[in-house]
Specification:
60% of the residues lie in helices and 0% in strands. By secondary structure, it is mainly alpha-helical.
Length: 176
C-alpha cells in the first residue's frame, strides 16, 4: 500500500505544472528520486500494520514560494510578508526569498525594509534579475533615477534588451 501511495505521489509531482521563479518565468523542477521497489511479503509473513494516510509534507523553498506567490498575486501582502519572514527563517540567505520580501515590503510602502531586502538578495546573487528590476522600481519611487538606470544597465549586461526585467524597468524609468 505504501509503495502504491508513493508511486501515485511521484506521478502527481511529475505531471504537475512547473513552478515559476520570482519574475513569473518557468524554472526547472527539482529532481525527484524514484521509489525503490519494496520486497513483497507473502500473506503468511505479513504483519498487520496501519497504512499511512498521507505521505509526509516536505517543505522546500520552491513549494513555500509558490504558496506565497499565490498570496502576492491576490494582493494579500501582509499575509505574504508574514509567510516570507517564516520562509526566510527556514531557508536563510536565499536570494528569491529576499527578493520577494523586498517586493512585498515595497507594495506595503515599507521602502526602507524593501531596500534592505533587495540589497541582501543582490549580495547573495549579484545577477538576480528580479531583484535588480524591483530594486530599480524602488529607486524610481524614491526619485533615484540614476540608480535605477544603473540597475537597467546591469540587467542589459546580463540578459540584453529583450528580457522581461529589462523591458519592465525601462518602462518604469520612462523618459527620465
Amino acid at each position: 500500500m505504501f509503495t502504491k501511495t508513493l508511486t501515485a505521489l511521484l506521478v502527481a509531482l511529475l505531471l504537475s505544472p512547473q513552478p515559476a521563479n520570482s519574475a513569473g518565468r518557468e524554472v526547472p523542477a527539482a529532481p525527484v528520486e524514484e521509489a525503490k521497489p519494496q520486497p513483497s511479503a507473502t500473506p503468511s509473513t505479513t504483519k498487520s500494520e496501519p497504512s499511512p494516510t498521507a505521505a509526509p509534507t516536505v517543505k522546500t523553498v520552491t513549494s513555500e514560494l509558490n504558496a506565497i506567490r499565490t498570496l502576492i498575486n491576490s494582493e494579500k501582502y501582509p499575509a505574504a510578508l508574514t509567510s516570507l519572514k517564516s520562509a526566510d527563517k527556514s531557508f536563510p540567505n536565499n536570494a528569491d526569498v529576499n527578493n520577494l520580501l523586498g517586493y512585498t515590503s515595497r507594495k506595503l510602502k515599507q521602502y526602507s525594509q524593501a531596500g534592505s531586502y533587495y540589497t541582501k538578495a543582490l549580495k547573495i546573487d549579484p545577477k538576480h534579475l528580479g531583484a535588480l528590476e524591483y530594486q530599480g522600481e524602488l529607486f524610481m519611487i524614491l526619485k533615484k533615477t540614476s540608480s535605477a538606470k544603473s540597475n537597467l544597465a546591469k540587467i542589459k549586461a546580463i540578459c540584453g534588451t529583450s528580457c522581461e526585467e529589462y523591458i519592465d524597468l525601462k518602462k518604469a524609468i520612462g523618459n527620465k
